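Hey, resending since the last one bounced:
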Amino acid sequence: MRIRPDRSSPPPALDNVFSHDYLAQLRERDEVLTASEAEYAGPWRCAPAVAKPGAVAVLREWEDPEREDPEGVLWHEETARLLAIALPMTEREPLFHLDDRETPDGFALTAVYGEQGAQTAGWLRRYEPRLAEALHLLEGVVRSPRALADLLEAAGPIAVEQVGKILARRLAS
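The structure tokens again:
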């Protein structure tokens, strides 16, 4: 039977549960292919910026704004929320690719659908790679209920109210 320690005083905060020796050995190895994606995976949160009063810091859920450098410091909370949504998607393999060769149908837009692999999603009239990047970002938002909720929260109460009215009208028709 285990004896529970006295819970009246909280345990000391740890920087990391892994020993420095263990981490040093890991750093000697080559990075795995998904390392860059893991760097931005988060989850991210917004907190008051310690170094800049009135600004908002974007940092990982487990990071302490008083001890670690945030990924970003922004003056507007809405922009900080958008950064927190965008960060996990920046290093992921793009979900959409726009071919730079024009065909009679236009420029082919390819989408990656999990194990199904890349498939033609359609064609665009102009070669504008930023549209494929925008689709990647939006697809990431709709795949994540948390990101979608964060996006609505960043939009503010008036926009959320209007979204509710739009959806109610669509349901009624």
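The first strand starts at residue 44 and ends at 48.

Sorry for the duplicate.
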